[in-house]
Every structure is written in structure tokens, then in C-alpha cells.
């Protein structure tokens, strides 16, 4: 039986565990530098993101972390899903769909224009899953990122 619940501050170790599991799945485990202190500050004190867990018989088996963005073209907010992860044993059983459905319900209830996320090009099983939901890949768009030393150097100009 699947249930969904919002994360609380006490869930920070579990959130970080799932973030690390997702990073391993994406072959990016060396990229995770988040700490419990940073998560507490940004998610729970500053309220810059929200986390949902999907549970099987009360056991957390996946999560989604999302936040609001703003579309100048639409003139309203949207929701961006930063992370969506379900443990391997529970994939294909509706948990990921349940998380996205709940986020879509939140978006609709709050009048958001869209829900969007990024997916690694090699992750065909996820791409197929997202397309099965009716999601469309963005054509002619590339993601750009300033981070680390490049961000610091640029911001000093």
C-alpha cells in the first residue's frame, strides 16, 4: 500500500540518504556535498524547497524534492522537481507516478502554470516513464549552470 507524506526536520538524515542513493544511481556520487546543516537551513528554516516521501506499508521508499519558480511568459509560478527517486525494488509499482501526481495536484491547486524537471539523456527508462505521463522533452533548449569557482569568479566582477 502506497502513502505519501511531507518531510519534517527530523527526516533530514533520510533525505540526505535518498539524495546520495540518487547520486549513485546517476553515477554522480562524488558531486554530493550537502550536509544535514545545509538541508536544515535551506529546506526547513528558509523554506526554499519541499520534500515528499512515498511510503510502502509505512516505510519510506522514495522521495521528491521540489521548489517554486516563476515564468515571466506565463505570468505565474511553476514547480520544478529537483530530485525524484524511488529505490530499485519499488520501481515500476506506481511510487514515482504517485509523487509526480501529488506535485501536479499541488501545482493545479495553487494555480501554477507547469511542473518541470530535468532528466539525464542516458536514462531511457525514466524518459519513457515521463513520456507515458504525457510529459514532453523540451526541444531546442540546453541547461546552463554557473557553479563553484566559475560562479565565485563571475560574481566578483
TrEMBL record:
Pfam family, one: Acetyltransf_1
N-acetyltransferase domain: residues covered: 2-157
Keyword Acyltransferase appears in the UniProt entry: yes
Annotated CDD domains: NAT_SF
GO MF annotations, alphabetized: N-acetyltransferase activity
Alphabetically ordered keywords of this record: Acyltransferase, Transferase
Family: Belongs to the acetyltransferase family.
PANTHER family, per the entry: DIAMINE N-ACETYLTRANSFERASE, GH14572P-RELATED
UniProt name for this protein: Acetyltransferase
Amino acid at each position: 500500500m502506497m502513502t505519501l507524506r511531507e518531510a519534517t526536520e527530523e527526516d533530514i538524515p533520510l533525505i540526505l540518504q535518498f539524495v546520495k542513493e540518487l547520486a549513485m544511481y546517476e553515477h554522480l556520487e562524488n558531486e554530493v556535498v550537502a550536509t544535514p546543516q545545509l538541508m536544515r537551513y535551506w529546506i526547513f528554516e528558509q523554506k526554499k524547497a519541499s520534500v515528499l516521501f512515498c511510503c510502502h506499508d509505512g516505510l519510506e521508499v522514495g522521495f521528491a524534492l521540489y521548489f517554486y519558480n516563476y515564468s515571466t511568459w506565463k505570468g505565474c509560478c511553476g514547480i520544478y522537481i529537483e530530485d525524484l527517486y524511488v529505490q530499485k525494488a519499488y520501481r515500476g509499482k506506481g511510487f514515482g507516478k504517485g509523487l509526480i501526481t501529488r506535485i501536479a495536484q499541488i501545482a493545479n491547486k495553487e494555480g501554477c502554470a507547469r511542473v518541470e524537471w530535468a532528466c539525464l539523456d542516458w536514462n531511457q527508462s525514466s524518459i519513457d516513464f515521463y513520456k507515458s505521463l504525457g510529459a514532453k522533452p523540451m526541444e531546442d533548449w540546453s541547461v546552463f549552470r554557473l557553479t563553484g569557482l566559475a560562479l565565485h569568479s563571475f560574481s566578483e566582477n
